[in-house]
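Catalogue entry: protein
Contents: sequence, fold tokens
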Amino acid sequence: MDKQEYSTGIGELYAAEVLGEGLANRWLELATDPIERYKIGLFLQLESEAKVRLRPLLARHGISLVEDEKQRAAGAAAAEQFAAKPWREAMAALAPLCLPFAHRFQSLLEVAAPEDAPLIRFMIDHELSVSRMAEREAQGESAFSSDLVVKLEHAFAYVGASR
């Protein structure tokens, strides 16, 4: 992998988080169930925190920090489809979508400079974790409100009626 390919891949890390943030933000707008809104809010927080965490890596490689609005729009469009499904079905659809990103980021890790490796490893774990949590949610477990919350720097508690 040459330097340009590597830089493109680093940009893809960021674009994936912009897309994920757009998806979570729009899905949150569309959700009506309070528990689902809380879980989607946690997902939005995860995507936002990952995006912010990547900015120093982009800056180190001279990659623009300007977000591609097409990525955000693509995420928002996908949210329409997720919001139209029952929660468990939506989670089953979300789980496999993270895996191609994890595989792409793994290819970056194989050629990453030592100073880049921790963030790229973080992104691989991030994508695999979202996939695993979505799989568990699809099985009826409450993985977002238990497993996702511990991954956040700025987590927040559920406020509302429990069920």
Observations:
- The chain has a mean pLDDT of 90.
- The radius of gyration is 16 Å.
